[in-house]
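Notes to self after the call with IL:
- keep both proteins in one doc
- input above output, always
- annotate only the second one for now

Protein 1:
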Amino acid sequence: MKRFIATLLIPIVVLSACTEDDSENMSTDTAPTVPSSSTMAPDFGEFNDATDEGAREAMVGNWGYAAINVGVYSSILYQHLVIPVTAFKATVGAEAYFDEETELWVWERNFDVPAQSDYQIKLTADVDGDDVDWKGYISHGTDLDEFMWFEGESTVNGESGSWMLYESPENPSVWLTSDWTNEDDSDIAHVTFTVQKEGDNEGSSIEYEADASTDLDRMVTIYDASIDNEVSIMWSQASGQGRVMSEAHFQDSEYHCWDADLMDTECE
């Protein structure tokens, strides 16, 4: 009887051992998906790239008010985070390797920052089942040696996660957090950037959404904690038409629209 039980257990033990080995090997065979660069910095090209005559004329209207707000708040983000954001974007498309000693996936690449000299980024990923811990180390010649400028976590397929971005090597405190989802199959994305640094802007946020199933398939909600004001903007990426709402600016809670030529129009 004992021999019979032992015979039954052998394949179970072998199968269990193989499953564990396979699970361990999976993390060393395939690198996790690097999250999209939009999870760390919003892309507002629709507003920033509109520089033709019609756009300049519309700057005094509804589109102009939306564009000004997008420009001001996105510049605040980039002004403080240009180095880590540029560094992260540089890793997109880079080839990863698995470091056997540290058991981490590693991406390394040099990158340039405008008006500054070369930097180096080392992005690492620690895979634990379906979860990934990310760390971004930035070096700058002999002046900066692998300062961890950002860190975060995500699912291994890159569909959701969060980031923490630090202000600088001189002040290594969290300046901004980002919480995001990115469902590629349905072309739906949602990311919220929140200022954590103490001061007038603490608690201010930019929430960005994309949903290809709607006519106005892009939405930004900007909250300015310093004046307790919220601006909601919706627009079509294809046509450029959209609408904006701000009680502080328009003195009402209605949307105010612009057409494909960026000129004011009645909302439908």
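Protein 2 (the one to annotate):
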Amino acid sequence: MHTTDAPDAKPTPSCDVDPDGWHLLARRVPSPNHGPRPAGAVPELIVVHAISLPPGVYGGPQIEQLFTNTLDWEAHPYFQQIRGLEVSSHFLIRRDGELVQFVPCERRAWHAGRSCWRGRPNCNDFSIGIELEGLEGDPFEPDQYTVLAALCQALRARYPTLVAVAGHEHIAPGRKRDPGPGFDWARLRALTGWARDCFADVDISPRNLAP
């Protein structure tokens, strides 16, 4: 979902997510790595991640290959560190703002791992995972923020139960560090217009909001 709007323009909420949880404007790359949510579980949390394969390399097919269990483990030395890993996320936002979807939001994607949000464990059960193509600690692209904010709005329009946004680093502290200090939480809050208490405990006070 590439947009030509100004980078800091607030997206208009829309119901772009169908009843099965597929985003109508996303390119679909179905992953086999998912399962049912527990009985009674609904999406309540958006988890923001960062990923690049190999680390710091952008634009290739390796992320999609990882999430579809087709990655050639011999193609790069780094891949030996993650050999056999079976993971997925609901969405990926490429550096140019392209939106890719792997798992319908009605299903439980395998993105959070061992995790806890405000005292509640197993975040995969009640979350939607969004990967940003990037390296933890490095800045992300303006188009990625615009598309992420629009996606958050569309998801909340479809799932009013979504009440919070956190990074992988916030739900798995000490184990994960993404999206990292290069991610501008103030910018995301400004773009969505969502309340401060919707976000993880990061410094996004008004003095730090992007103009």
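Annotation: Confidence is low (pLDDT under 50) at residues 1-7, 9-13, 204-211. The chain is about 15% helix and 15% strand.
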